[in-house]
C-alpha cells in the first residue's frame, strides 16, 4: 500500500481525524442511549451512498488498519483506538432493534434500464434488513479494533487515555441479551491486547487502576449473571493472567489479593450444584482454566520441605523434563 500510495500516511491522518470528529459530534451532550443510537445510525450501511458515509469511512479505516505499523501509529496519534473503545462501551446501551428503527433513507431516482448513471448520481443497492446491517457493523467494528490491537501503540494509547479499564468493565458487566455480541467483541479485543500489547506501561496501568479487582467484584456481585456467563468472562480474564505472567508477576499477585481464587472455588461449587447439562460442561472448562493457572508465573515451584518417601528423595529418581517452557 505504501509503495502504490505515497500519501498513505497523510491520508490515514485525515480519515482518522474525520472519523473521530464525526463520532464525537454525535456523542456530545447526549444520554448514552441516544449517543449509541446516533453513532450506530451513522456507521451502519444504508441503501444509498449518501446515507452510508459513515459506513464508507469505517470500511476505509478497516482497510488502512491492515497496512502495517506506520498507519496504525497514525490512527493511534489521532485517538482512533480510544474513540472506538468508547463507542463499544456505549453500544452496551443500544435499545432493542425493534425499538430503534433506522430513519428512512432518501431514495435517489433510478436510471431507466440500459441507461448509465450520470456522474455524481448516487449508487443504490438492495436494502439489507436492519438485523443484518447491525451484524455487519459489529463484525467490521471488532475487526478494526482487533487489527489495531495487534500492535503495542493502541494498547498504550488506551492506557494513557484511561479507556482500557472500560474494556475490563465491559467484559464483566451485565448487558441485555440483544447486545451480547458487543460484550463478546470487547472480550475479543482484550484477548488481542493480552497477546500483543502487554508492555510494561500497560501492565502498570492495569495494576494501578485495579482492573482485576473490578472484574472479580463485578462477577461476584451481579445477580443478573448466570454461572455460565461468568465462566465465559473468566476465560477472557485468564488470558490476561497467563500472557502477563511471562512479563511480570504483578497481575497474578493482584488476582490473589482481590480474593480471585476464593471466588473461583465458590463458582466451582455453584456449578457443581447446578442441574443443567451446560453447567457440567462449564465446570469442566473452569477446572481446565484453573489447572492452567497453576502453571502461570515466573518463579519455579520448589518442593515444600523434606517429607518421608517423597519421590525426589528416592534413589534413581530423575526429574522429568518440562514439556512446555518450564515456567
UniProtKB/TrEMBL annotation:
Keywords: WD repeat
Biased segments, Pro residues type: 103-114
Name of the featured protein: WD repeat and FYVE domain-containing protein 3
Organism: Ameca splendens
InterPro entries reported in the protein's UniProt record: ARM-type_fold, BEACH_domain_protein
Region (Disordered): 100-126
Gene: WDFY3_4
Domain of life: Eukaryota
SUPFAM superfamilies: ARM repeat
Amino acid at each position: 500500500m505504501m509503495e502504490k500510495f505515497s500519501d498513505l500516511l497523510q491520508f490515514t491522518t485525515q480519515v482518522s481525524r474525520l472519523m473521530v470528529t464525526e463520532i464525537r459530534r454525535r456523542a456530545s451532550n447526549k444520554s448514552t442511549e441516544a449517543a449509541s443510537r446516533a453513532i450506530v445510525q451513522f456507521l451502519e450501511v444504508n441503501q444509498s451512498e449518501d446515507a452510508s458515509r459513515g459506513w464508507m469511512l469505517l470500511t476505509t479505516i478497516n482497510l488502512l488498519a491492515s497496512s502495517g505499523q506506520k498507519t496504525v501509529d497514525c490512527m493511534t496519534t489521532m485517538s482512533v483506538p480510544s474513540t472506538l473503545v468508547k463507542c463499544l462501551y456505549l453500544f452496551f446501551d443500544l435499545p432493542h432493534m425493534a425499538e430503534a428503527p433506522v430513519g428512512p433513507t432518501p431514495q435517489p431516482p433510478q436510471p431507466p434500464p440500459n441507461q448509465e448513471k450520470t456522474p455524481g448520481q448516487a449508487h443504490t443497492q438492495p436494502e439489507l434488513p436492519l438485523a443484518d446491517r447491525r451484524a455487519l457493523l459489529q463484525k467490521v467494528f471488532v475487526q478494526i479494533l482487533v487489527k489495531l490491537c495487534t500492535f503495542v501503540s493502541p494498547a498504550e494509547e488506551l492506557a494513557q487515555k484511561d479507556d482500557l479499564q472500560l474494556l475490563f468493565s465491559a467484559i464483566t458487566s451485565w448487558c441485555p441479551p440483544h447486545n451480547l455480541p458487543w460484550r463478546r467483541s470487547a472480550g475479543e479485543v482484550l484477548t488481542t491486547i493480552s497477546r500483543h500489547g502487554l508492555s510494561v506501561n500497560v501492565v502498570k496501568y492495569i495494576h494501578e487502576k485495579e482492573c482485576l479487582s473490578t472484574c472479580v467484584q463485578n462477577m461476584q456481585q451481579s445477580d443478573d449473571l448466570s454461572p455460565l456467563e461468568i465462566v465465559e468472562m473468566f476465560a477472557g480474564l485468564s488470558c490476561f493472567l497467563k500472557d502477563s505472567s511471562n512479563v511480570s508477576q504483578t497481575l497474578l499477585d493482584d488476582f490473589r489479593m482481590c480474593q480471585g481464587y476464593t471466588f473461583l472455588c465458590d463458582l466451582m461449587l455453584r456449578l457443581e450444584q447446578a442441574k443443567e447439562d451446560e453447567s457440567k460442561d462449564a465446570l469442566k472448562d473452569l477446572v481446565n482454566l484453573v489447572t492452567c493457572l497453576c502453571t502461570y508465573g515466573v518463579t519455579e515451584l520448589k518442593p515444600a520441605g523434606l517429607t518421608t518417601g517423597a519421590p525426589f528423595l528416592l534413589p534413581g529418581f530423575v526429574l522429568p523434563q518440562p514439556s512446555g517452557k518450564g515456567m
